[in-house]
Amino acid sequence: MKIPYAALCVIMVVLLSEAHLTKAVTCSPQELSSCFAAFTSSAPPSSTCCSKLKEQKPCLCGYLKDPNFSQYVNSSKAKRIASTCGVQFPNC
User: Fold this and answer.
1) Spatial separation of the C-alpha atoms in residues 59 and 38, rounded to whole Å
2) Which of 49, 62, 72, 82 is the Cys-Cys partner for 87 at CB 3.0 to 4.6 Å?
3) DSSP annotation of 66
4) Are 38 and 76 in contact (CB under 8 A)?
5) Which CATH number is 25-85's, of 3.30.1340.30, 1.10.110.10, 3.30.70.1140, 3.40.50.1100?
6) How far apart are the first and last CA of the chain?
7) What pLDDT, in 10s, does the model give residues 15-50?
8) What distance in Å separates the CA atoms of residue 82 and residue 57, rounded to the nearest whole number?
């Protein structure tokens, strides 16, 4: 049995999409340690910081609700870093 090329492409796109959507993010504020320099100075965030921030984006509301982290995550410096990295600050 031959599968048409277009059908094979559609199947591959669906499988890859599902694999991407089910990839779980481990929420860990330590993952944002590469943003420390940008947070403690006026230095722009590094590319590593931006990558980690984008990776941790699904976790930001949780950090905002956690009293141990909310004062840092909700600060003007954190919002500047998010903006510079192109990460929309969440409205939780």
Assistant:
1) 20
2) 82
3) S
4) no
5) 1.10.110.10
6) 51
7) 443 444 445 789 999 999 999 999 999 999 999 999
8) 10
